[in-house]
Hints:
The protein has 259 residues and is of the alpha/beta class. The chain is built from nine helices and nine strands.
Amino acid sequence: KQRGLRMEPLVVVKNVRKIYRMGDEKVVALNDVSLNIQKGEVICFLGTSGSGKSTFLRILAGTLQAQEGEIIYPTPPYYVPQHFGQYDNLTVAQALRIDGKLEALRAITEGDASLSNFNTLADDWTIEERSLAALHAWGLEHILLSQPMRTLSGGEKTKVFLSGIEIHQPSILLLDEPTNHLDRRSREKLYDFITSCRITLLVVSHDRTLLNLLSSIAELSVGGITLYGGNYDFYKEQKEQEQASMQEKLEAKEKELRR
Length: 259
């Protein structure tokens, strides 16, 4: 079952196409993908290796541009990436995109009452306390906001970005393999969040436990995208039935050809 009433879609994806150049060759990562996503919908994107799952999330997040197509949403999504190398030269505050507010708050408290600082802070006077509390909730009380991301482990980097969910309170959340580097306790915390959250959630994952918490599966392939209403176990059952049906049709065609 999908949560919420089916009204106007929150996210509209129209004919998105992404091509990578590998030397003289062109590799189609996404081919004419179109999708309407309702408010509060929870979807996992599945597909074979190279089917464009992470590419699709990056395009939705705005960190990668498609050659063709259009994506419409009311507010930018919050994105928890799978890989973190591009953030190694940033501080935790910069990776969480709160450094501007922290600098404005510090300037104001030191006597700089310029309008630009107040506009940047946007009345978010508790930004530092809220950010530290969010890190603490993920067991990162030892992490400083000024600390370089390169000093953190893979699991700590993942939890830094997960803490940003509480800080930014997004209406659209993108998670790319979020349990890859997490310990068991942190995975359980993430499962609890996914079960209880009411925001629009789009996930790429190979974690069977997580997949069965999600209410829809979207399969990416060279032919585009196919939606299955149900969790991973339901999707797997549907795929097995489809494959059995295709095998029966193939065997019937072979018999006909022999005749």
